[in-house]
Request: fold
Amino acid sequence: MSLAEKELSNTTVNHANLLELHHVKKYFPIMGGVMRRKVGEVKAVDDVTFSLMKGETLGLVGESGCGKSTTGRMIMRVLDVTEGQIVFDGQDITSVKGERLRRLRQDFQMVFQDPYSSLNPRMSVGALIAEPLIVNKKGSHSQIKDQVVSLLETVGLSAEARIRYPHEFSGGQRQRIAIARALALRPKLIVADEAVSALDVSIQAQILNLLADLRKEFGLSYVFISHNLAVVKHVSDRVGVMYLGRLVELAPKSSLYATPLHPYTQALLSAAPEPSRTVKRERIVLVGDVPSPANPPSGCAFHTRCPKVMEVCRSVRPEMNEYQPGHFVACHLYS
Amino acid sequence: MDSQVVQGQVGKATASVAKSKSPFRLSMERFFHNPLAVAGLIILVLIIFITLFPQVFTHYNPSTPDIMNTDSPPTSLHPLGTDASGYDNLARLLYGGRVDLTVAFAAAFMTMFLGTLYGGISGFFGGWVDNLMMRFVDVMLNFPFIILVLVMESILNIASEWMLVLIVGITAWPGPARLIRGLFLQLREQDYVIGARTIGASRWRIMFRHMLPNSMSFIIVLVSFQVAGYVGIDAALSYLGLGVPLSVPSWGGILSTTTDYLTMTTEPYAWLPPTIMIVLTILSVNFIGDGLRDAFDPQSQA
Reply:
């Protein structure tokens, strides 16, 4: 049974899925020529299917340009989906617009990579955290004020931070402010797009622990996007690996890190620093560069760099298959 | 719990800072530490004071000629002499700033208002709206400005400073509109603007609470440079005889009556003072604009 079928059947049987992506694609047109006609397209996300259960944290890893941030932004409905379907909490949100979308947005919020650019520098912290509440008319002036104070305490900042401006805070503190802002509407899902990548390693741990605490406290689900394998391993229940706009492997954390199946995942993991000196892993060095998403290779997108390439890889695009229970991989080696 | 530790740290850090300063206040502090900008501000305030209260410095009416004393050289009666019609040069100089400064400031604000509105909408919506609006800007940018002034003046037959403001306003907005459009296109992709969309903020809120406040510094700087430009433009148009009627005193008007060779060589007391006033105004406004630009620039740490 292919992943798509399995996940689709899941949706009809159980409603434990908070978020489902079905064959989601995002193609950016390339304009060229005198008449600014479409001369091609960048396949930023090409046929991605996965689901997220309630209370689950799904990590998305991949190199820069693999489409993981684009996927996050499509889930947030900041970018329009070219093709496919996004189902959130049983409701198709792919093409919802206007007032209905504004109301739905309360349930899914985002934490951005760079807390220096994600907070409007001309608004005080109090105004920043109150804004989602004001916009969605959540209570009176004094109720909102109380909520801002309690949100600040939730993320570990003191109430007096309210009257200050973002430039007076450190990166880690700003990311706490951004998290408080994302929490304000009590969302069900938070998309964290490289939420700790811009921070010092010591601060990263604090923010990751805060996110883990909040998950328990508010029953949150996360889509955690990162290029850092160690960070993803720390926070995720399941991990999806992306390459050139495609999901190549999707598995529970333990299974993925212990027995990576896809040659790309194997290469990625072998390149990650190993904290223990006793474990010696052979490093797989990939040759060449990531091909252009404007002109992706035929068949399996990874075949140009794959150390285990076969003839079939050049022509046939591999389907996602469940190799072991819960462990999906898109590779001809396993079909 | 580690969050409590952090709470303690924040408490300490904030206790050492006496008062929270908004980014705007910090910019203003930087501005007032810039000697050239402050000098420019003082000179401009002085010039504005003189043109607002010219009676303090002269008892002559700039529109009442002293027929017994035409073409007089500087005397104790007329410190800067009189012109061929017997108007007191000092009185015309002091009163003349009213026209020049009104036109410069009003035209600058009007162009900036129209330019910000047009460019802001164009940049905010982007796509085909932007494409269409910018093609119209291209047309406007190529519009023969001087001919329009001539045509409008001859059709409407009103030569007044407000006519000038109107003409400058409706012809000069495309330049600023383009700049603001570029800025808004840039701001649109900023994380905090995308963040505002994700919390469900309306378009108006995003425009007025997020994008406009963050373009204000840029707009203020543009206004200051525009003002400097229009002090010059008014003088140039008056010089061509397209400005205000000759009976109304203006710096450009005085200059245009002193262009003949004889006056230029023998009566520097007639044309030098208005020239100096125009140059001083332009310089001081430019210094203020430079100072504002440096003060608002996040890269400059003062």
Observations:
- Chain A touches chain B through 49 residues (CB under 8 Å).
- Residues 8-14 of chain A have pLDDT under 50 and may be disordered.
- The two ends of chain A are 11 Å apart (CA to CA).
- The CA atoms of residues 323 and 334 of chain A lie 7 Å apart.
